[in-house]
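Problem: given the chain below (452 residues), write out its structure.
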Amino acid sequence: MQHGESGTLPSYQAAADWITGLVPFGIRPGLDRIEALMERLGNPHRRLKFIHVAGTNGKGSVCAYLSSVLFQSGYDVGTFTSPYITKFTNRFQYNGKDIKEEELLALANELKPHVEAIAETELGSPTMFEVSTALAILYFAKVTFPDYVVWETGLGGRLDVTNIVYPVISVITNVGHDHMDRLGDTLAKVAEEKAGIIKPGIPVVSAVTQPEVVDVIRRVAGEKRSTLYMLGEQFSETALEVREDEQEFRFQGMFRTIEPLRISLNGAHQRTNAAVAVMTLEVLRQYQALVVDDDALTEGLHKAAWPGRLEMVKRDPRILLDGAHNPEGAEMLVKALKETYKYDRLHVVMGMLENKNHRATFKHILPIVDTLILTEPDYRMKMEAQDLAAIVQELPGGKPFELVIEKDWKQALQTLQQVTGSSDLGVVTGTLYLIADARARLLYNSDSEKGW
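Solution.
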């Protein structure tokens, strides 16, 4: 679609294609275009209560816990997340349900003339992510009117488009090695970007651990006079019982201790994510008159689901999906595989994008695999399987394993199912672009249009 081409979008598919067609404009940091867009629409974002969530890993899970508990407590909840796993509409949810295709079409048509007008100015065309963000704000401010919007950052924080909002509370899950090509080459620099969502006087809940990252978050919170609630200081969690698809833990906070809480998501990191969500709700309960009773809290946490994160999609043989696309994600995956799952042999399919820290990711995975099948996601920024294999072969050898190179991800999945015996475990991991397609195929769900 050319810049100057106006006219009404005829269908949902045309609307989704128009928005995703803005990808070539890339991710251009800065809030100028989204501010111009909001200004033209009458600043609808100022009428909404946002819970703003940033972090390298765990953002989606924290958003899932928050949305689930708020909904269980009788609140109307809007949720904006990225990237999506099955369909573009997944990104815009109201009370756990996707935006309807015709609503998305109507909002895209409302936005289109404004987007085209801004494209003609020196600001240039709004990007795909900017238009999606504007669409989410319109959907919540003009169509659904939720009590709270659970609002996930796209990338970074400070210059991320989502940072146009003034939230009731900010959350920074953790800081790790991801998008360093765009956010800075040290953890402290990445932390500085994430800390950009801290707004003057607005409380912050965080589970960051590395000393240099803690220093940055503490300093920025101090400068903004924001009260900081830090995991390990103002709140913590203790595991009570861990089994596959069910974990019990005790939450200890400044205001009270709550136990037992149950979650059905796997891995120790999910207890951390749940504790972050609980602390966020506790702060809102204490200072913003949020009403969440313990039954709703318990039920909401237990019901929270997040596809593609340690998700068992097949039982015979067992096939697990996990979107561990950076070193920290891989480390959490390996920890969960050791602590939660029992198996004789482990077979792993991996596909990754070019701009990731492949070496550090493999370092976690290689010591525990029996078979490693390298493949390629169906995505323009994919890393060639052959290039991944070269990296794997350079790494110092641990225990011997079988290396398979299979460019075709569908064939790689088939091979995985063939080599995984009844007492083994098969895992598909790496980029969410691969996870999305694998999930659709393994669950026979063909409606997959994965992506940003």
